[in-house]
Amino acid sequence: MNYISQTLQDQVSELLKPHRVCLVTPVLLHQSNQSCRRSGSKFVVLSLWRGYVVTKKQPLRVESTFSYLEISSINIHSLTQIELETDGQSLSFSVLHDEDLVAIISHMTASLKRIFPDSSPGKLLKSVPLDLQESLLTMTAVIEEQLNSQPGPCGGFSDTYAALCDFNEMPFREEIQWDVDNIYYIHNWRKFNLQDFSHLESRDLALAVAALSFNQWFTKIYCKDLKLSADIQQQLTFLLSKSSSLEELSLEDCGLKVDFAVKMAAALQQHTSTLQAINLSGNSVEDKGVIALSQEIQHLNEGLRFLSLSRVSMSTKGLGCLSQVLSSCQQFSTSLTHLDLSCNPGSLVTEDAT
Question: For this UniProt entry, which segments traverse the membrane (predicted)?
Fold first, then answer.
């Protein structure tokens, strides 16, 4: 921002409120895929989680914007020319000095690392001139190392949540951030209780669950007597397909049906799960859901420590499949310490249930 007057900086900040402006850089924007043809001078403005192309003419206006979450690759064509490939556009521009280019890369790399603490944003650099390779790769590695050693409260949950709110154009709920950064963090709670946020709209709670998908701090998800909307259920299954830290999932009397159990099973199939405890009691997942889950829990490397399928409308058919898995897989004989199949009328009284 050294080349921008204070008055102009203030105008940009006012234009983008409530987003906090972190960097304003004069650029020469290139027409798409034609680096030799230029469409005029602009500003590239970077906030915490988003970039903007702003006109230089008064009154200032935003020509286009992109979330850092949309970036699929970064190609550096020279010491001053950069091209960003996003989901919706290709943005190519030249900066005045190579320090500006480094500042842009540094800011976006640090932001992405805060959003996805377990990621390596430096891998987005697909094309880098030899003159810059060593310095840029060293810089991104240093940023990642620093943020790895100094993560935000609860594994940086609030940064991830804030970025997802921005990406989805949803309001940022400060009570979620406050509870996690203070109550959860101070007490070292690793169990995220959905009921703590039951007063929120379901879409707001769904975004909080989405943030858990990229979080290594929380190892348990808990909910009881709260009907979970389709949005929240979708994010829970996404979490199961992504999380490498989730050990316990307890969703008791949450209005879940067969389709959730089937989707949950499909999510478990996508990667090696760390789950050790499952509680779906009080949800009508029925035989189809129990069978789908049974076919997937047998692939858990360490088996299950806790399994509760009480009151799930299961018959002898579902129980037969589950019992076959539990008895035939060696890991369950040493891992399973709690099994609750109660209140599934008739499921335990036939020969199929042996």
Answer: none
Of the listed ranges 11-25, 29-43, 202-216, the least confidently predicted one is: 29-43
DSSP state of 20: P
pLDDT, tens digit, 9 for 90 and up, residues 284-301: 999 999 999 999 998 887
> In whole angstroms, what is the distance from residue 304 CA to residue 297 CA?
8
Q: At what angle do helices 153-167 and 202-212 cross, to 10 degrees?
A: 130
Q: Provide the angle, in degrees to the nearest 10, between the axes of the packed helices 258-269 and 230-242.
A: 20
> What distance in Å separates the CA atoms of residue 43 and residue 46, rounded to the nearest whole number?
10
Q: pTM (2 decimals)?
A: 0.88
Other C-beta atoms lying within 10 Å of the C-beta of residue 244: 11
Q: Which amino acid is at 239?
A: L
What are the φ/ψ torsions at residue 27 (nearest 5 degrees)?
-140, 160
What type of residue is 23?
A: L
